[in-house]
Amino acid sequence: MPVLEAKGLHKVYSTGEGNEQAVLLDIDLQMRQGEFVAVMGPSGSGKSTLLYAVSGMDKLTAGSVIFNGLDITGLSEDELAGLRLREMGFIFQQMHLLKNLNIIDNIILSAYRAKISNRRTINKRAAELMERTGITALADRDITQVSGGQLQRAAICRALINEPAILLGDEPTGALNSKAAGEIMDILEDIHHTGTTILLATHDAKVAARAERVLYMRDGQIAAEQHLGPYRSGTSDLKKREEMLSSWLSGMGF
Amino acid sequence: MLLKIVKRDFQRNKMITLGLFIFIMLSSLLTASSAHVVMELTHSLDNLLVKSNAPHFVQMHAGPIDNEAIANFAAANSIVKEQQTVEMLSLDGSQVTLGSSMKTEANSVMDIGFVKQNLQFDFLLNLDNEIIQVSEGEIAVPIYYMKQKNLHVGDQVSLSKGQFQTSFTIVDFVRDVQMNPSIVSSKRFVVSDADFTALKSEFREIEYLIEFQLTDLSKLSEFHNAYQASNLPNKGPAIDLPLLKTLNSLTDGVIAVVILLVSLLLILIAILCLRFTMLATIEEDYREIGVMKAIGIAQPDIKKIYLAKYFVLAILAAIGGYLLSLIAMKWFTANISLYLGAAPNSVLQHAVPLLAVSLIVGIVVLFCRLVLRRFNRITAVDALRTGASPAPPSSTSILSLSKRRLLPVNVFLGLKDVYGRFKMFGILLFVILVGLLIIIVPVNFMHTLQSPQFISYMGVGQSDIRIDLQQTANVDQRFEKMIASLEEDNDVVKLSPLVTSRFKVLGSDGAWESINVESGDFSIFPLSYMDGASPATAGEIALSDLNAKDLNKQVGDTVQLLIGDKEQNLTVSGIYQDITNGGRTAKARLPYNEESVLWYVVALDVKPGVSVRDKMDQYAEAFYPAKITHLEDYLAQTLGNTIKQLKLVVLLAIVISIAIIALITSLFLKMLLAKDAAQLTVMRSIGFKNSDIRIQYLGRILLVSAIGILIGILTTGTIGQGLVKALGSFMGASNIQLVVQPVTAYLIIPAAVMTIVAITTFVTTLSMNKSRIAEQIGK
Q1: Domain of residue A126, CATH code
Q2: Could you give the percent of chain B with pLDDT greater than 90?
Q3: Which of B186, B535, B593, B647 maximizes the CB count within 10 A of its CB?
Q4: Residues whose CB is less than 8 angstroms from the CB of residue B264 and which lie 6 or more positions away in sequence, other chains included
Q5: Which residue among B400, B404, B686 sits closest to A85, beta carbon to beta carbon?
């Protein structure tokens, strides 16, 4: 059974005076458990909208999203919030951490709210995640006292604290320099290898090259799909995957 | 262009704009109303003094009188302009029946006096401020009774004494510059000269009002001393023009002060309210302001757009408030119009409230300008990039969630936010505190006036029954007989006979002045003393607050008294408060001279289970013509009018305060929600429900209001007390202790305020931004 199945996703925005603009047009998408899929495409092609739509953060004009066998399109706001809390992790381009909490509190917040286990266990898991992402020393820091890369690591910890069934990322490296972006991708790749399903929207071929499958979106539709196969650092040649992807993308006019 | 932007802004923030409008209108209404009350009070009182041709000095006297000596004194004193001696027939309440009432006025605390119209001055006026003229068989009744007994023209007033019976038809009501206020315990009924002569032969008790008008009012106290130093009749209280003015303006003066205080607090809150609204608007428009700056619109022009909106709003609201005050004016000044009469309209009467309202507009505009200085700090780049004002730096690790084992997440987030942004939340806290004070202080003040303890500010100890015996024939013998009879009464548990006589005291200026001293054992029904204690020996004296101030004496100081022909030094043992007899009294254990006795009083308590009413009836019959008073009735009848007026103000204060608290809480929350929009979206994106967020805000607001309420309750003890003392000193008791009903003040009112805050928070957060997270994150 696929983790995520989207059927006929359709999203239209009203631009006023009776005019409408379609941002998603009959999109079908399936993701199996543990799969890593990247979505690429030019600005305005609908990448982010697709991510928000499948996570229940945006309302669809038509179509359905089946998540772990449950049709989430008919769920209420509160039910969707509960689903995001326990079963989905989201990483944003601008990190979006809460300003009045320090790093550790930002990470544990949703776990404390979800009450998935006792607070001691949650703190332990947060410590493990921070160690894995290399930010243990920053636990008590204010979010204004750390770099963008470190913030994004904290955002990844937050997204993973409840051990979600899927991790969604909207340009997670978009606001970072190339070194920090590389480090973040190493972490995501690592997480993927532990069995986490990942759906990522990105502009960057270097990021997408680590995915097993790349979808190319244009004008609200999936124009093409490229299977790159599993990637494992050390054994696979990332450079080669990047070149292959780039030439495919240029063939698509990207 | 400007109008278009302002119009769009009105449409966008309809509710907030309307709320603010109502709020400024309310402050304008109250400010204008209190200005109206003050103007009306001053004008009406002045008008009444002129129309009635008020006396400047009045000596009341019961007993034989030497008119020739008085005329000689007046002729010899160059500052005396006019002099007249008014005869007033004293009737016992049991002899008088008013209107259709089946009961006599036996239980009334008022001394009933019958007079004829005066010829020279001190005219008794009707409701149109015209000099009353009544024919035979007709009577004009004091306004006090018109209100109390709901009397109408055409009703009857019946008099009976033994076999004698007569009745009069009410043709008018008396506006009496001397005895109008309910706090003055004598009332004058006006009958025709012929009826007066006829009544005089039946009711022989005559009290004299020896009245003077002076050519130079600045020499009033000099004249007062000169009169008291002479051997002229003086068995009774003396009053002068300033005291007349104070007594007449007491009730409405207190009301005006309370309204003014409420409106001052309102203006303060209106400004805060404006600040919330403006900050919320600036917050919402942050990006647009950035765009305007970026495309080169000059800062003063951008400011003008915002200023225009609030200027228009303030002007319209102020006009609305002023117009409403013209309607409400009748309501607020009804008491003044009734007791003091309406003064002819003057420009000033309308100009002052208008000026007060203009001042509000000025304050609003000035404050807008101050808030708009914030624009200087907005840079186009920042506004365009972040779309929100930069958050102040806060330390996030002081309260850490990871270290809390039990605290629910939503509660933690609420608490942490209040801690982190306390300065901002402090504004709401202040408003709730003030809102609470606006309710609690007047409520407590009203409770204080209504409480039985208030009697101690009237210079009287707290007892069940008080018996007053004024000057009559053989009064000393009657008094002794009464005491003997009471001492034998098994129903009486405590008894304290007190005799008031007039002595001379050495004033602070070295001149001898008159002083009324009540003698007896003051330990039986103790007064509450501001300082010190009751006189324990014959060498001690307790002074009323005003007397102590006049004589410039404190506890432990020595007062020189002329007793008989001998000078005697008395030590001040205590200072107490007294709002009766102009607030100038004293208490001591002096041997009294029957010649100088003014009146006798007996205070007594009956055994538990004995009916006070039955006892009063029994004593009224046995000790006729002594006046028997139930002390609670005394308070109700003398302060009843003030309490009634105050109730109106309290009701208004409650309504206004609730409106303020609800409105400000709502505006504050709206501002907060606009400010926190981005953070809330993040929270929703990671799985927090709207209900979670609502709980967080409820937690924040309730915590802030709880602190506000707590401080409010503690403050009532200081600010409230100070306020009551200020109002009290206006009445002659500068140290009134606030009487607090704990259940009302500490439970019901705070709980009501909390409930209003909670409901407002809940309702306001219902309209929380429900837009899709995707749209918000994308911004």
Answers
A1: 3.40.50.300
A2: 27
A3: B535
A4: none
A5: B686
Which of B243-252, B470-479, B560-569, B692-701 is modeled with the greatest confidence? B692-701
Secondary structure of B550-576 as H, E, C letters: HHCCCCCCEEEEEECCEEEEEEEEEEE
The pLDDT value recorded for residue B435 is 87
Tell if the CB–CB gap between B777 and A158 is shorter than 8 Å: no
Each residue's pLDDT tens digit, B587-620:
999 887 777 788 888 999 999 988 888 888 888 8
Q: Count structural domains, chain A.
A: 1
Residue A51 belongs to a domain = yes
- B347: contact with A, CB 8 A cutoff: no
Mean pLDDT across chain B: 84
Q: How confident is the model at residue B1 (pLDDT cuts 50, 70, 90)?
A: low
Tens-digit pLDDT profile for residues B264-303: 777 777 777 677 677 777 777 777 777 887 787 888 888 8
Separation in Å, CA of B385 to nearest CA in chain A = 12
Which positions in chain A have a beta carbon within 8 angstroms of at least one beta carbon in chain B? 48-49, 52-53, 57-59, 77-78, 81-86, 88, 90, 92, 96-102, 104-105, 108-110, 112-114, 119, 123, 126, 139-144, 158
Note down the domain range covering A18.
Answer: 4-34+45-196
Q: Which chain A residues touch B687 with a CB distance below 8 Å?
A: 81-86, 88, 110, 113-114
* For chain B, domain boundaries: 86-208, 410-421+430-455+638-661+671-779, 473-624
* A188 class by beta-carbon count within 10 Å (0-12 exposed, 13-18 middle, 19+ buried): buried
Alpha-carbon distance A58 to nearest alpha carbon in chain B (angstroms): 6
Cβ atoms of B290 and B254 within 8 Å: the answer is no
- Enter the DSSP assignment of A211: S
Q: CB B416 to CB A101 under 8 A? A: yes
Neighbours of A251 (CB within 10 A): 10
B324 vs B33: CA distance, rounded Å: 9
- Kindly determine whether residue B686 and residue A105, on different chains, have CB atoms separated by under 8 Å: no
Report the gap between the CA of A247 and the closest CA in chain B (Å): 30
So what's the pLDDT on residue B646? Answer: 81
Q: Report the residue of A72, A106, A113 to disrupt the B interface, i.e. the one with the largest count of B CBs within 10 Å.
A: A113
Nearest to B416 among A88, A90, A100 (CB): A100
Q: What is the pTM of this model?
A: 0.69
Backbone phi, psi, residue A185, to 5° = -65, -35
Least confident segment among A59-63, B110-114, B223-227, B340-344:
B340-344
Inter-chain CB pairs, A–B, below 8 Å: 109
- Reported as a single tens digit per residue, the pLDDT across B376-423 is 777 777 766 666 666 555 566 667 888 887 888 998 888 888 888 887
Cβ B401–A112 below 8 Å, yes or no? yes
Q: Which of B493-507, B697-711, B722-736 has the highest mean pLDDT?
A: B697-711
What is this model's ipTM?
Answer: 0.89
Closest CA relative to residue B147, chosen from B513, B640, B546: B640
CA distance A238 to chain B (A): 31
Which of helix, strand or coil describes residue B604?
strand
Round to whole Å and give the CA distance between B721 and B497: 34
Verify whether the Cβ–Cβ distance B396 to A143 is below 8 Å: yes
pLDDT cut 90: percent of chain A above it: 51
> Does residue B391 sit at the A interface (CB-CB below 8 Å)?
yes
Instruction: Tell me whether residues A84 and B686 touch, CB distance under 8 A.
Output: yes
Q: Is B550 on the interface with A (CB under 8 A)?
A: no
Q: Report helix, strand or coil for B393.
A: coil
Best residue of A43, A67, A96 to probe chain B, by most B CBs closer than 10 Å: A96
Question: CB A78 to CB B770 under 8 A?
Answer: no
